[in-house]
TrEMBL record, chain B:
Superkingdom classification of source: Bacteria
Protein species of origin: Zooshikella harenae
PANTHER family the record matches: ABC TRANSPORTER PERMEASE, ABC TRANSPORTER, MEMBRANE PROTEIN
Transmembrane feature ranges: 291-315, 336-364, 384-403
Keywords: Cell membrane, Membrane, Transmembrane, Transmembrane helix
UniProt subcellular location: Cell membrane
The ABC3 transporter permease C-terminal domain, residue ranges: 294-411
Pfam families linked to this entry: FtsX (PF02687), MacB_PCD (PF12704)
Domain MacB-like periplasmic core: 20-234
Membrane topology: Multi-pass membrane protein
Protein name per its UniProtKB record: ABC transporter permease
Length: 258, 421
C-alpha cells in the first residue's frame, strides 16, 4: 500500500522501502528526481507507471544502490542506503534485491541453470538462505523453474534456445533465487504479447507470494495496472518530473536519463 | 574471486574462435621464444663440449680461433705446419702427459681425412670427458687402415672392409686422387655429435705413404709412382704435422707451457687453451643468437598485443554482459577481476600450449637433427631461465590486461545496471 500520509510511524514495521526528501540530479540545478516521501510495504506488489523520462530508471538505480542521491534518505529493510559506501551498497543489492529487465536478461554463454544460480556466486546471504532451507542452488533453481511453468529439461539448455517468454521466466527465477526481499522488474513484459504478459505476471505474483517478496514493477503499459495491488504514478510524486515535463525541455531531460 | 574464474572461462568459451586464435598466437610465439632459447643453449652446450680433456691445442703461429677452426672443427686449412721435430720435443717435455698429432689436408667424398696415431683413441675426449668409442671393428693398425666417424659411415653407407680412395685437398670434388693406394675401413666410431663424426682417421704413416713421390701437392713429374708394397718398405715418419693436442700432468702448468710454446725458438708456434678459444669462437656466433632471441621476444610482444586488441574489442559488445553481472550482484571489483582473469587465462593457456608444442616439435625433430647434424638434442625439462621467461610473458599479459580491466571497471561504474548496447 502506498502511504503518502503523515502517519507512517504506525506502519514502520510493515515498511520495506522508504524514501524521504529524496533529490537526485545528474547535473547541479537540474533535478531529475524529487520525491518528498514514499513508503512501500512488505509483500506488496507495486505498479510504478510513468512516461519515458519521468525518472523511472533513475529511481530504480537509486533503489538498487547504483546511484547515490544528493539529498534525502533511501531506507531499505531498515538500512539507509545513503549511509553505505559504494561497495557496501553493491553488497546490499546482491543480498536483498533481485532484478528483472526488459530483455536480454541472461548471459548467453551460461546454461539456464547457471544463469539462475548466478546471484548465489556473488552473494553469501543468498547461499546461506538456501542452505537454511536445507536445499542447494540447483534444487532451488529446479523448483523455481517448475513454479514458473517451465519444463525441467530447460535447465540444461543454452539460453539461446529459449523463447523470449521463457527467457523472462528464467530471469524471474534468477531474481528470486536465494530469497531476496525485494524484486525490481523494469518493463519485463514489454517484449511479450498481451496473453504472455498476463500469464507471466500471474506466475511472477505466485512466485513472489511463495517467497514473500515485495515486487516493484515498472512499466508504461496501463493495461497491466489493474492486475496489481497498488499503483504509483511517478509523474504525480516526482516533483522534478512534473515540473520539467510541463516545460519545453522534455527532450533534453530524456537524453540525460537515457 | 573464485566466481570470476569460472565466469571468465565460460565467457571465453562463448567467444571460442577469437579466444582460440589469441591463444594460438601466444602459443606460437612462446614456442618460438623457447625454441630459440633451447636451440641456443643446446648448440652452445654441444659447441663448447666439442673438445674436452685437452689442455692445449698447438699449431703453427696463427690466431687462436683460426687454430681451433682447422684443428678441432676441421674447417678451412692451416697456413703452416709444425715440424715433426718440434712435436717430438713436445712429446718429451717433462710437463706433458700425452700428445695427439693431427695431420690434415686430404679428404674423401667431402669428409676430412685426419692422420693421427693410437693416442687419438686413448686420449681424445669430448662432451663431459667422454672418450671415443669404437662401435664396430677396431682401431687402425696397418698403414692403409682407416677408422671412420659415425656420420661418414651413415651418409656414405660404408661398413667394415670397405675400400676407400682418398683425394688430395679438402674439396668435395678433387681431381687429385690417391687411387693407387686405397684404404680399408677397419673401424667405425660411435656417434659423438662433434666433428669427429665427419672425419676419416688414418695413421700418420698412411698419410706419408700416399704422398710418396709427390712434390708441392702434386705427383712429381717424371718420377715413377711408388707402389703400395714399395711404400711399406720405406720409413714413413712424417716431416710435418698440422697441429697437436696436448694433455698435461698438472693443470697448474698450463700457462707456463703455453708461454714456453709461444716463445719456442726453433719455429713460431701457437698454443691455445681450447676452452677459452671455444668461448671466443662462440662469442662470434652469439651475435646471430642474440638477434634471434630479440626477434622472438618481439614475436611474443606481438602475440600479447593481439590479445590486448581482442579483449579491448570485445569490451563494447560485452557491456550488456557487465550490466547483467552487476544486476545479479557483481561489484566493479568483480568486473575488474573478470577481465584480469581473462587475460591471465589466455596467456596461461597460450604458454601451456606453446610449451606442449615445443616438446612435440622437439620429439619430432630430435631424430632428424641427430641424423643430419649429429647433435643429440636433449629433451630436458624447462630450465629456471625458461620458467622465468614464461613467468615474464604471463606477467606482461597481466600488466596489459590492466588496460581493458580498468576500462571495463570504469564502464561498469558508469553504466551500472543500465544495459547500453
Amino acid at each position: 500500500m502506498l502511504r503518502l500520509s503523515k502517519r507512517k510511524q504506525t506502519m514502520m514495521s510493515d515498511a520495506i522501502i522508504q524514501l524521504q526528501a529524496l533529490q537526485f540530479a545528474w547535473k547541479p540545478n537540474q533535478p531529475v528526481l524529487h520525491i518528498d516521501e514514499l513508503t512501500i510495504n512488505k509483500r506488496h506488489k507495486m505498479f510504478i507507471k510513468g512516461p519515458s523520462g519521468c525518472g523511472k530508471t533513475t529511481l530504480l538505480a537509486l533503489l538498487g544502490g547504483i546511484l547515490k542521491p544528493q539529498q534525502g534518505q533511501i531506507t531499505l529493510l531498515g538500512q539507509d542506503l545513503t549511509q553505505l559506501t559504494d561497495s557496501q551498497r553493491d553488497h546490499f543489492r546482491s543480498e536483498h534485491i533481485g532484478f528483472i529487465f526488459q530483455m536480454f536478461n541472461l548471459l548467453p554463454y551460461l546454461s539456464v541453470l547457471d544463469n539462475i544460480t548466478l546471484p548465489c556466486r556473488f552473494s553469501q546471504k543468498r547461499q546461506q538462505r538456501i542452505k537454511d532451507k536445507q536445499s542447494t542452488p540447483q534444487a532451488e533453481a529446479k523448483q523455481l523453474v517448475a513454479t514458473l511453468g517451465l519444463p525441467e529439461n530447460v535447465l540444461s539448455k543454452p539460453v539461446t534456445e529459449l523463447s523470449i517468454g521463457q527467457q523472462q521466466r528464467v530471469a524471474a527465477a534468477r531474481a528470486l533465487i536465494g530469497g531476496p526481499e525485494i524484486i525490481i522488474a523494469d518493463e519485463p513484459t514489454s517484449a511479450l504479447d498481451y496473453d504472455a504478459r498476463k500469464s507471466f505476471l500471474s506466475l511472477l505474483f505466485e512466485v513472489c507470494d511463495a517467497h514473500q517478496a515485495t515486487l516493484l514493477f515498472v512499466s508504461h503499459d496501463p493495461t497491466l495496472e489493474t492486475l496489481f495491488d497498488n499503483t504509483l504514478s511517478l509523474m504525480d510524486i516526482n516533483k522534478a518530473a512534473s515540473h520539467h515535463l510541463s516545460g519545453q525541455d522534455n527532450i533534453h531531460l530524456l537524453k540525460e536519463v537515457g | 574471486m573464485m566466481p570470476t574464474l569460472k565466469l571468465a572461462w565460460q565467457s571465453l568459451l562463448n567467444r571460442r574462435i577469437t579466444a582460440l586464435l589469441t591463444v594460438l598466437a601466444i602459443a606460437i610465439s612462446v614456442t618460438l621464444l623457447l625454441g630459440v632459447e633451447k636451440i641456443r643453449t643446446e648448440t652452445k652446450r654441444s659447441f663448447l663440449s666439442t673438445l674436452s680433456g685437452t689442455d692445449l691445442v698447438i699449431g703453427a703461429r696463427t690466431g687462436p680461433v683460426q687454430l681451433m677452426l682447422y684443428s678441432v672443427f676441421r674447417m678451412g686449412n692451416a697456413t703452416n705446419n709444425i715440424d715433426w721435430k718440434s712435436y717430438q720435443h713436445l712429446q718429451q717435455h717433462p710437463l706433458v702427459k700425452w700428445t695427439i698429432p693431427l695431420s690434415l689436408g686430404d679428404s674423401h667424398q667431402g669428409f676430412r681425412v685426419l692422420g693421427t696415431d693410437q693416442s687419438y683413441f686413448t686420449h681424445y675426449q669430448y662432451g663431459d670427458h667422454q672418450p671415443l668409442k669404437i662401435k664396430q671393428g677396431k682401431v687402425f693398425t696397418d698403414i692403409f687402415d682407416a677408422v671412420i666417424g659415425a656420420d661418414v659411415a651413415k651418409k656414405l653407407g660404408y661398413s667394415l672392409d670397405e675400400s676407400i680412395v682418398l683425394a688430395h685437398g679438402a674439396g668435395k670434388t678433387s681431381f687429385m686422387k690417391h687411387s693407387d693406394k686405397p684404404f680399408t675401413v677397419v673401424g667405425i666410431l660411435a656417434p659423438t655429435g662433434t666433428p669427429v663424426d665427419q672425419t676419416i682417421h688414418v695413421s700418420l704413416a698412411g698419410i706419408e705413404a700416399i704422398h710418396l713421390g709427390w712434390e708441392n701437392g702434386v705427383p712429381a713429374m717424371g718420377k715413377p709412382r711408388v707402389s703400395t708394397n714399395q711404400a711399406r718398405q720405406q720409413t714413413l715418419e712424417p716431416k710435418t704435422i698440422t697441429a697437436a693436442l696436448v694433455g698435461l700432468k698438472s693443470k697448474v702448468a698450463t700457462f707456463r707451457l703455453q708461454r714456453e710454446i709461444n716463445e719456442y725458438k726453433d719455429e713460431p708456434l701457437t698454443a691455445v687453451l681450447p676452452g677459452v678459444a671455444l668461448a671466443e669462437l662462440w662469442s662470434l656466433l652469439s651475435v646471430a643468437e642474440h638477434a634471434l632471441l630479440i626477434i622472438s621476444a618481439f614475436v611474443v610482444a606481438t602475440g600479447l598485443i593481439g590479445m590486448l586488441t581482442s579483449i579491448l574489442m570485445s569490451l563494447n559488445e560485452r557491456r550488456r554482459e557487465m550490466a547483467i553481472l552487476r544486476s545479479v550482484g557483481a561489484r566493479p571489483v568483480h568486473i575488474f577481476s573478470l577481465m584480469m582473469t581473462e587475460a591471465g587465462l589466455l596467456a596461461t593457456i597460450g604458454c601451456l600450449l606453446g610449451v606442449s608444442l615445443l616438446y612435440l616439435l622437439m620429439l619430432i625433430t630430435q631424430p632428424i637433427i641427430s641424423n643430419y647434424y649429429g647433435v643429440a638434442l636433449a629433451i630436458t625439462p624447462l630450465t629456471h631461465y625458461e620458467w622465468l621467461l614464461i613467468l615474464v610473458i604471463i606477467s606482461s599479459a597481466l600488466i596489459m590486461g590492466l588496460i581493458p580491466a580498468w576500462r571495463a571497471y570504469k564502464n561498469s561504474l558508469a553504466d551500472g545496471m543500465t544495459i547500453r548496447v
